[in-house]
C-alpha cells in the first residue's frame, strides 16, 4: 500500500477556442481549485505544472510560469511533460512529494491553447525525431492512427460504424450537461454518419477536436486535510505512470513500426492493459469495484478499446457492453460521464487533470445533472505518445 | 521542359534496390537477433540483451495487412504537397511481416484505395515516389497488393 493523498480542491477553465494564452487559462483553473479547497495560494508548499509544447519557453517551464502568474511566494516548483499523460505525471509528482513529506499541500496545473487543425510536429528538419518522420515520410496525422485502430477492431472484433457512432451519442449527451465542456449539444447517430470522413473509417464526429482549456487540483497529505477540517476527502489511491515492455506489438503514435517480436516473446498483455493493471494493483481493487471511469476517447473506437483494456469486459466484448447500455449513466459502469474528449476536445496537458476533476466531483456527489448515484470508486485512463501510461484511481 | 532530377531516398538507409530487388532495410543485433525498423545503429533496445553489433538486414518483401486507413485531408508540414492542387487522399497501410513479427506502416501505391483493401490481404513492398521538387525526386516505399501488377 503506497498511501493516499487527499484531493482538497478541483477547478477548470472551460474548454473551447477562446483565443487567449495558456497562462491565463491555467491561472483561472488554479484559482478555482484553490477557492474550492479553501486554501490560500501563499500556504501552498509546492506547485507542479504540466507542460505545453505550444506556448514557447513558458510552456516548457509551466510550473514556474503559473507560480509567477499567481504571484511568486517561494513554493517548490516542478514542471513535467509526458504528452497526453502529462497531467498524470504532474499528479504523481505532487503525490510523491506529499507522501515523502517534502510538501503538505501541492497545486497541480495543466493548460493549453491549441492551434487550429491537425497537431503538427515542432518546426525545423529533424530526421532523428519519429514525430517529424511520420509527418514527412507518411503524412500520418493523429487521426490516421485512430483510423488504423478502428479498422482493426472492425476486422477482428466485428465492431460497426454504428457502434462507434453510439459512443459519440452517449458522450455528447453528457457533454450537454457539463458547463466546462466545449460542445454542449446532443448528437444523433445520423449526424455522426453524415459527418465527413477524416481517416477511414472514422468521421469528423468520431474524432476529438483540439481545444483550449485548463484544469487544476489542490492535493494534500491526509494529515493536512484533517487539520483543514475536511473529514472525508476524496483520496487518490493509485497513480499508474508505467512504460511499455519490449517488444511492443501495437503500432503506437508516433511510430512508423512496432518492435519486432522475432527474438523476444511479447507480454500476453498489451501496454494499455498494463496501465490499468498497475493502477488496480496499487489501489488493491479490481474493475468490479468501479463506480465510473473516465477514459481517453481520442476517437469513438478508442473508447471501446479502453473498456477491454480496463477489464470492464473481455477482449472483443466492448461493443456488446456499449449496446447493453452498461457504460451509459445508470448502467453497470458509466464511462465518460463528463462527456469525454468527444465533448471537450483535447487540451493536452490539462486533460488527465480534468479527468481527475470529474472523479472528484462525482465522488463528492456534487456533479449536478451528471451525478452517478452513490459513486465511491473511479478510475481515469489515458496514454501519452512516446510510451507514457496514465491512470489514476480515486476513492471516497 | 524536362530535366533530370536526382533520385534521393526521403530517409537515407531505410530502403534500397529497384524492382523485385527493392527492400526495406532494418538492422539486426548480433547478440540477441532482434530486428529493428526504423534501423537502430547505435544500441539494441532489447532490455535482456547484453548489447551486440547491429548489422544491416533486408526485411521480408511480403506481409499481410494488419490494418489500413486513409488521409482525406491534407497533412500539415513537413509533409510536402502542392497547395495549388486539390488534395488527393491516399491510403496508409500497416503491414505485418510474418518472419520479423513486426508491423510497418507505409503509403499504398497510387490508385489503391481503402475500398481495395481488407485486413489479412497479402501485400508487397515496392519503390515509390513521395514528392518532387526542382532538383530532387524524393523516393520512398509503398505497399501494393500482391494481386496487382506493376
TrEMBL record, chain A:
Residues 7-111 form the Thiolase N-terminal domain. It comes from the Bacteria. One of its GO terms (molecular function) is acyltransferase activity, transferring groups other than amino-acyl groups. InterPro entries: Thiolase, Thiolase-like, Thiolase_C_2, Thiolase_N. Residues 275-392 form the Thiolase C-terminal domain. It holds the Pfam family Thiolase_N. NCBIfam families: PRK06059.1. This is Lipid-transfer protein.
